[in-house]
């Protein structure tokens, strides 16, 4: 078994920092976990599904902690476990999220509540419960994975768009509230990304129309002016940029990673 020194982790700029990532078992969260670990960070992943997180934890030497982010007391318990494993949180990456699409008139109130709880209320709880860690020590970071849907409207996705606009509002407000501290608060706002969430969107389009799943994926990629899906690694690289010590004057930003969608 290689120790941290033998893996060369002591060379990375994030060496010794504790990065906690929600929804770390797949897509953008998993890519971010791998990239931060490669820079030397100690990584804790929180998420609903234990198995994919455990596989990544074994690969990168991190902690995989089952947690439903819609449950405030579960977050509290999971943070205690993460601190016991890796110390106070330095980088908090609130990434867990869910999407859905349907005409507004046919959107159930339960769907709205579930999406707001997962994509927005969880940010309130996740950020507030980490504050004791984030307000002590240098170069502390809160990064929220929002979306271009946090910056503009989209038909057939009202709850998702509302949740992501809320996420952006929370980020900007916290950035101002903590501007004089050593904590920065930022959002990344991706366009359509090549992750399981987009696979599910393609599947929904396939079910609702006569288009094949491949055609549906192409249609989603075409919504990015670049004509291609963003990769999870590209979004992860932007998250790392915001965590970097040289980014300490970047706060309240919404970094778009969208192939030009908001240009
Ligand atoms: P994903 O589906 O692979 O990742 C979402 C993760 O959140 C999963 O690991 C899932 O298990 C976890 N999660 C969902 N509900 C949870 C809960 N209640 N408690 C704990 N964990 C929960 O998809 P992706 O794309 O990596 O999504 C990550 C973030 O990126 C989400 O917030 C999403 O809204 C955002 N995003 C995704 C885009 C895309 O095109 N895929 C575009 C813009 C933003």
UniProtKB/TrEMBL annotation:
<dbReference type="InterPro" id="IPR057326">
    <property type="entry name" value="KR_dom"/>
</dbReference>
<dbReference type="GO" id="GO:0032787">
    <property type="term" value="P:monocarboxylic acid metabolic process"/>
</dbReference>
<comment type="similarity">
    <text>Belongs to the short-chain dehydrogenases/reductases (SDR) family.</text>
</comment>
<feature type="domain" description="Ketoreductase">
    <location>
        <begin position="17"/>
        <end position="181"/>
    </location>
</feature>
<dbReference type="InterPro" id="IPR050259">
    <property type="entry name" value="SDR"/>
</dbReference>
<dbReference type="InterPro" id="IPR020904">
    <property type="entry name" value="Sc_DH/Rdtase_CS"/>
</dbReference>
<protein>
    <submittedName>
        <fullName>SDR family oxidoreductase</fullName>
    </submittedName>
</protein>
<dbReference type="InterPro" id="IPR002347">
    <property type="entry name" value="SDR_fam"/>
</dbReference>
<dbReference type="InterPro" id="IPR036291">
    <property type="entry name" value="NAD(P)-bd_dom_sf"/>
</dbReference>
<dbReference type="Pfam" id="PF13561">
    <property type="entry name" value="adh_short_C2"/>
</dbReference>
């Amino acid at each position: 078994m290689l120790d941290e020194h033998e893996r060369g982790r002591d060379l990375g700029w994030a060496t010794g920092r504790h990065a906690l990532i929600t929804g770390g078992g797949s897509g953008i969260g998993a890519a971010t976990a791998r990239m931060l670990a490669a820079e030397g960070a100690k990584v804790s992943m929180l998420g609903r599904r234990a198995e994919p997180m455990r596989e990544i934890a074994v690969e990168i030497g991190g902690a995989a902690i089952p947690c439903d982010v819609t449950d405030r007391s579960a977050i509290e318990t999971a943070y205690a476990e993460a601190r016991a494993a890796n110390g106070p949180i330095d980088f908090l990456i609130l990434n867990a999220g869910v999407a859905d699409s349907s005409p507004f008139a046919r959107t159930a109130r339960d769907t709205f509540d579930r999406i707001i709880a997962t994509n927005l209320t969880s940010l309130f709880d996740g950020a507030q419960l980490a504050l004791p860690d984030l307000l002590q020590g240098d170069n502390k970071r809160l990064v929220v994975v929002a979306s271009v849907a946090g910056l503009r409207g989209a038909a057939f996705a009202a709850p998702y768009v509302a949740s992501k606009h809320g996420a952006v509002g929370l980020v900007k407000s916290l950035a101002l509230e903590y501007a004089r501290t050593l904590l920065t608060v930022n959002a990344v706002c991706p366009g359509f990304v090549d992750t399981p969430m987009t696979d599910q969107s393609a599947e929904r389009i396939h079910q609702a129309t006569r288009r094949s799943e491949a055609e549906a994926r192409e249609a989603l990629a075409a919504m990015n002016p670049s004509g291609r899906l963003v990769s999870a690694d590209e979004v992860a690289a932007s998250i790392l940029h915001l965590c970097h010590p040289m980014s300490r004057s970047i706060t309240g930003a919404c970094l778009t990673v969208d192939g030009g969608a908001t240009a």
